Structures are given as structure tokens and as C-alpha cells.
UniProtKB/TrEMBL annotation:
This is AAA domain-containing protein. SUPFAM superfamilies: CheY-like, P-loop containing nucleoside triphosphate hydrolases. Keywords: ATP-binding, Nucleotide-binding. One of its GO terms (cellular component) is cytoplasmic side of plasma membrane. It comes from Desulfobacca acetoxidans. One of its GO terms (molecular function) is ATP binding. Residues 135-292 form the AAA domain. Pfam families: AAA_31. One of its GO terms (biological process) is negative regulation of cell division. PANTHER family: SEPTUM SITE-DETERMINING PROTEIN MIND HOMOLOG, CHLOROPLASTIC (PTHR43384:SF6), SEPTUM SITE-DETERMINING PROTEIN MIND HOMOLOG, CHLOROPLASTIC-RELATED (PTHR43384).
Length: 396
């Protein structure tokens, strides 16, 4: 948000009746836009299910107790700054308010200057926030050749269509890193260069050294030393610092992790927000998945971030999704159809799948997978848990 942008402000009249005083003062401030108003928190949250306000003014005029629903409301609007207005000066009341994520307390009757100060604080806080929390997606698989490079490359391109310039694809696949061939790029700087400078990386330096694909996708290719990954060649802590630096520069970091299960792999999957575990529906794949599942448990990976994706899926195989689900004890996250012809054309030409087969089912499904990951990474809004606030509101 820049200084000239009008701040979107919504008012929740938390005492259950509209207080015209606040709206009147707001209308006279040219750099604000009155977005929505409601007299109960449930309606207020549903009004903001798709778009959160920059600033929420919670008017508690007439209340001498902090309502129970206030903490819940604040949690469910994580992208908004919060200001509370009240006449009450009771110390317990004020302490309870300040224990919540409330940026400003505005005394009533409302003074224009107090509101202006609260707005300035909210604007400053919003500017300091990263626009979206960054997400690391590690793409790995049940065996070599299962399709991790095809998926990592085209998934990164699909995400980049949604947020151009905000996505970087890093090649950590061993022993054969192939992102360079898939996108017809030659290494200038490599992941190894970045890892070696891990202590001094910042967003500006990163943007300089990361290669730009013509789509605006950032690409970090691999290097010979990374291919082996012997201990001593690369310090896993340096990989970790590199990932932290990448998070400051990009919203999405897609890593082709291959399935070389060494100490660098462990570090990557520990740091990742999503682990896409690609497999086919065959007995050897399922046997490998059992072993990988045991390893993931030993490495204490958070269960929710492991997402099984079935590649080259067809409904009429003897082994079905149900068999896989019962072995892994989790639902399959996504399936991708088989389309060798389109994919091999793209790989051989060194271009995105979207360029050779924009209407193919495989590309559409990869875009769907990207959309699913984007949706999962959004902060939860008011629609997700209907009823809870009503309960609190009635009680409070
Ligand atoms: N959904 C699919 N339909 C048809 N062919 C596919 C599909 N996914 C991958 N392939 C084919 O499988 C082959 C291997 O793909 P890819 O190189 O992406 O796998 P990989 O797991 O990265 O392999 P490696 O272990 O060598 O790094 C390629 O020829 C690719 O075209
Ligand atoms: Mg590969």
C-alpha cells in the first residue's frame, strides 16, 4: 500500500446499534473509504468473506465489558488492522483490549485527531507487513522418472501466471538436475553460488542473480557440486538460510527436490510449507511410498503439509486411489492425467507445457493444482467457521 492509496475502513457497531458519530467523522477524511458497516459480528465477517478491510473500527460504545467475540473476530481478520472505540476508561477493560491484537484505542466522543492518529498507525503497520506469507513447495516423488521436474517446472509457471514475478523455481534435483533443459536456460549463477553466500543474501541481491525466464518466472539452476550433495560440500544450515532469503524476495518458492533422500533433502522438506509427493498407481510405487512415509515420520514432518499427487492417473487401473489412501492413511490431494505426447514435445523444445498444449487436460489440471495451493495458503476469512461468533455474541 502506498501513501496516496485510500484506506478501506469498515465499522462494526459492536453494541448492536449504529453509532452515526463515527461514520460522520470518517466521511470527512478524504484519504479514507468507508467500506462496510454492520451491527453484529457475524454479518460483519460475512461481508468481508472475499475482501478484508485495511482497518476495522470496532465501536464498543455503551459496553463496560469487552465482549467475548472480539478476540475471535480479530483472529478471523488477520489481514486487517484493528482499532477499538469506547467511552469506557475502566483499567480492566483497557487491559483486556490491549491484550488482543488491537493497534489503537480511540476514546469516545470521537475526536478527528484521534482517528487520524489511529489511521496513520494502521497505515504504517500495513506497510510493514509482507504482502502474502511466502510458501515453499518441495516437489518430490516415489521414484526417479515419476515426473517431479515436469510438475515442478509447470506448476511454477502456473503459479507465475497468477502472481507474475513473484515465483522462483529452484533445482535441487540430484543426480540429474534438468530444469535448465526443460526451460532452455543455461546456468549463470547457480543454487550453489547462493548457498555459498547464504550469510549475506538479501532480496535485492537475489533478484539480481536469479535468472529470469521470459515468462518472468525466476529460475535458479543447479550445479555439478550439488548433484552429489556429499556432506561437507554443502552445509544444510546454509541451504536453510538461502530459503529464508528467498522467502523475503518471492511469494512462491517451488523446489524440484527429485527423490535423492539425503541430508539436503531432509532440510528442504523440514523447511517446506507443502511437500508434493508424486506417485503412480503401481505396486513398486506404493512400496516406496510406505518407506517414504516412515522416513517422513522419523523426520517429524508436519502431517498436513504432505500432499500426495497421483501422476498419469486413469480410473480403470487395478490399483485405485482407495488402495493408496488405505496404505498411506490419508486422502490423495490431487491427480494428474497422462499426456506423454504434449509433455515430451514441451521438454524437447525446452518450453512450458502451456506453449505446446495450452488446452490440454494436463495443463488445465496443473493450473487447478496451483489454484488449490493458492487457496490453501490464504489467511482464513469469516466464512470458514459459521456459528461460532453467533454463539459468542449471544453469550457476550
Ligand atoms: N503426466 C504425465 N503424462 C505422461 N508422461 C509424463 C507425465 N509426467 C511425466 N511424464 C514423462 O515422464 C518422463 C520423466 O519425467 P520427469 O523428467 O519430469 O521426471 P523426474 O521425476 O524429474 O525424473 P528424474 O528422476 O530423472 O529427475 C518424461 O519423459 C515425461 O514426459
Ligand atoms: Mg527430474
Amino acid at each position: 500500500m502506498n501513501q496516496s492509496e485510500r484506506l478501506r475502513v469498515s465499522i462494526l457497531h459492536g453494541a448492536g446499534r449504529e453509532n452515526p458519530e463515527i461514520g460522520e467523522v470518517l466521511q470527512n477524511l478524504p484519504y479514507l473509504k468507508l467500506f462496510k458497516q454492520a451491527v453484529d459480528p457475524e454479518t460483519f465477517l460475512s461481508q468481508h468473506a472475499n475482501k478484508a478491510p485495511d482497518l476495522v473500527l470496532v465501536d464498543l460504545d455503551g459496553l463496560t465489558q469487552v465482549p467475548e467475540w472480539l478476540g475471535e473476530l480479530i483472529n478471523r481478520l488477520p489481514a486487517s488492522e484493528i482499532a477499538v472505540c469506547s467511552k469506557c476508561r475502566d483499567p480492566d477493560f483497557l487491559i483486556r483490549i490491549m491484550k488482543l491484537r488491537v493497534g489503537s484505542f480511540i476514546p469516545l466522543p470521537l475526536q478527528r485527531q484521534d482517528l487520524e492518529e489511529a489511521v496513520a498507525r494502521a497505515r504504517a503497520a500495513l506497510q510493514e507487513r509482507p504482502s502474502e506469507p511466502s510458501q515453499i513447495i518441495a516437489v518430490t516423488g516415489s521414484k526417479g522418472g515419476v515426473g517431479t521436474t515436469s510438475l515442478a517446472t509447470n506448476l511454477a509457471l502456473a503459479l507465475n501466471e497468477t502472481t507474475p514475478g513473484e515465483v522462483v523455481l529452484a533445482d535441487l534435483a540430484r543426480p540429474f538436475p534438468q530444469v535448465g533443459q526443460f526451460l532452455d536456460l543455461k546456468a549463470q549463477h547457480t543454487l550453489r553460488d547462493l548457498i555459498q553466500s547464504a550469510d549475506s543474501l538479501d532480496a535485492i541481491f537475489l533478484r539480481k542473480v536469479v535468472q529470469q525466464h521470459k515468462s518472468q518466472l525466476g529460475v535458479i539452476l543447479s550445479s555439478a557440486e550439488l548433484e552429489t550433495g556429499f556432506p561437507g560440500v554443502i552445509d544444510p544450515e546454509a541451504l536453510s538460510k538461502t530459503l529464508v532469503a528467498l522467502r523475503t524476495a518471492y511469494t512462491w518458492i517451488v523446489v524440484d527436490a527429485g527423490c535423492w533422500l539425503d541430508y539436503l533433502f531432509v532440510k528442504l522438506v523440514q523447511e517446506a510449507d507443502h511437500i508434493l509427493l508424486l506417485t503412480e498407481l503401481s505396486v513398486p510405487d506404493l512400496q516406496n511410498l510406505k518407506k517414504i512415509k516412515a522416513l517422513f515420520q522419523r523426520w517429524e514432518l508436519d502431517d498436513y503439509k504432505i500432499k500426495v499427487v497421483v501422476n498419469r492417473y486413469e480410473k480403470d487401473y487395478t490399483l485405485g486411489l482407495g488402495d493408496l489412501e488405505s496404505i498411506l492413511g490419508r486422502p490423495v490431494f490431487y491427480t494428474l492425467p497422462s499426456d506423454y505426447h504434449s509433455l515430451i514435445e514441451a521438454i524437447n523444445q525446452g518450453v512450458p507445457l502451456a506453449e505446446v498444449a495450452p488446452r490440454s487436460k494436463l495443463w488445465r489440471k496443473i493450473k487447478g493444482l496451483a489454484a488449490e495451493l493458492v487457496a490453501q495458503s490464504r489467511p482464513k476469512t469469516g466464512e470458514d467457521k459459521p456459528g461460532i461468533l453467533r454463539r459468542f455474541f449471544l453469550k457476550g
